[in-house]
Write a structure and sequence with these properties.
Elements: H1 4-11, H2 20-51, E1 58-64, H3 69-84, E2 88-94, H4 95-99, H5 101-116, H6 119-129, H7 137-142, H8 147-157, E3 161-164, E4 182-185, E5 202-205, H9 208-216, E6 224-226, H10 242-247, E7 255-260, H11 270-277, E8 283-288, H12 293-302, E9 312-315, H13 321-327, E10 330-332, H14 337-345, E11 350-353, H15 359-369, E12 373-376, H16 379-390, H17 393-404, H18 415-426
Parallel strand pairs: 1-2, 1-3, 3-4, 4-5, 5-6, 7-8, 7-10, 8-9, 10-11, 11-12
Helix pairs in contact: 3-18, 5-6
Length: 436
């Protein structure tokens, strides 16, 4: 409306008030406005068609693996964000468990046993396979698992897009049969070459350093997005409050150390760790045992008659771990990618005790190089560093600032929302209505 009135006066000019050069400029201006209006009308028509078509449903296939809790939690976070985005359907698929259940159980047990009893074996295997290319003998074999199941799945579900939170790329070997867009969400701070495949359309990574590593391997920069790792929807920043301390039976006048035992294998020497920390009256411990009920019972029995047992609070599986992270001044944990991402989101200094060789040790080394984590080889060193940090407000503040620098910038949305919005934008995936 703002440009139509002067243009109308121009074309009604019969007195020759406007000279020829002015008319040429106005005609060019008018042509530009007309083209712009056509584009806007087409866009509005497309948006109206998407919004007004309740029967038009898109479907997302999320391929994950149950080797560790992080891949599953990332898949669930993406599922929830996608469902929030509009009228959509999501298929969650544990490819190895569905296609080779017996082999899946065997490999899971081997993973857990080697992780807890033969960590150097696991680290050695991780190291020798890390530079593996997709078209190598081993790479081709690993990516062939579940190929027949994927064929059936594509025919049955007809997804609009596929997201991987674990690099089982059986679908990619079928790329000639299907042009479905495929996306990889790398769930660690270290890059294993198994994640890299030429038919992946876009990679979502936690850090700029991972983006640089992928670029060094020949991946185009516009095929990589630094999104952060996808965390569940309710993982959000909250403030400390008396009600929150009361809910978890913690005291606001003491420094809180949060210890997370880990989903795959128990972090060693937890009893000794708690004993040493309880020697310091200004420290209280929140110990999260997860699904490991025997560990929770063992700790409670061991410290039942301890004079400082009131400063050791044990928990099972936690749905709202972000609330405990808010109350904590320091975190002791195994360095899984998603757990570290939660600590980064909470700006929580992290202490890692004897990380297992493999992706977790590489995660730990990366965060240590950024000043966001401390790696300890023995309990004494761990407790000393932890106490030094939580008892020094300035050092604690500086540590939180370094951690903040690792948070993905440029969006007010969560990583899961950022990834889903990016996929919907770049894929032929209709959305009913944006709720972000």
């Amino acid at each position: 409306m703002y440009v139509s009135f002067p243009l109308l006066l121009f074309f009604l000019d019969e007195g020759g008030y406007y000279n020829n050069s002015t008319k040429i400029i106005y005609r060019i201006h008018l042509s530009f406005i007309c083209v712009l209006q056509i584009i806007l009308r087409l866009c509005c028509r497309r948006c109206a068609m998407l919004i007004q078509s309740p029967d038009r449903k898109s479907k997302l296939l999320i391929v994950y693996a149950s080797y560790g809790e992080g891949h599953i939690q990332a898949a669930k976070a993406l599922r929830d964000a996608y469902l929030e985005f509009g009228n959509h359907q999501v298929v969650m698929y544990d490819l190895m468990a569905e296609s080779h259940p017996w082999l899946n159980e065997m490999t899971k047990r081997f993973y857990q046993k080697s992780y807890t009893h033969l960590p150097f074996l696991y680290g050695w295997m991780y190291g020798i396979t890390k530079p593996m290319k997709h078209d190598s003998l081993l790479g081709s074999w690993l990516h062939s698992f579940g190929r027949q199941k994927v064929k059936q799945l594509l025919l049955q579900e007809k997804p609009n897009a596929v997201i991987y939170t674990f690099p089982f790329y059986a679908l990619q070997s079928l790329k000639k049969l299907s042009s479905i867009p495929s996306y990889a969400v790398i769930t660690d701070f270290d890059l294993h070459r198994r994640w890299v495949h030429p038919s992946i359309d876009r990679y979502y990574v936690a850090t700029k350093d991972l983006r640089h590593e992928l670029q060094q391997l020949g991946i185009r920069s516009n095929a990589i997005k630094v999104s952060g790792l996808p965390l569940k929807k309710d993982f959000q920043s909250i403030k400390r409050s008396p009600e929150l301390y009361e809910r978890y039976r913690l005291q606001s006048n003491r420094a809180t150390v949060l210890i997370m035992a880990g989903a795959q294998g128990v972090m060693p020497n937890i009893i000794q760790m708690c004993e040493q920390l309880l020697l310091h009256p200004d420290i209280q411990i929140a110990l999260v045992c997860g699904h490991n009920i025997p560990l929770k019972q063992l700790v409670e029995e061991r410290f039942h008659s301890h004079p400082s047992s009131h400063r050791l609070i044990t928990f099972g599986y936690m749905n709202r771990i972000h609330e405990l992270m808010t109350l904590a001044d320091g975190l002791v944990t195994k360095p899984g990618g998603l757990t570290l991402a939660e600590a980064i989101a909470s700006e929580l200094p992290t202490f890692i005790y004897r990380p297992v060789p493999g992706q977790e040790k590489q995660n730990a080394l990366y965060l240590q190089s950024k000043g966001a984590a401390f790696i300890a080889k023995d309990i004494d060193a761990l407790v000393e560093e932890l106490l030094q940090l939580v008892n020094d407000p300035l050092q604690l503040l500086n540590s939180r600032m370094r951690i903040r620098s690792l948070q993905a910038k440029g969006s007010s949305h969560s990583a899961a929302e950022t990834i889903i919005m990016d996929i919907v934008t770049k894929s032929n995936v209709p959305n009913k209505v944006s709720v972000f």
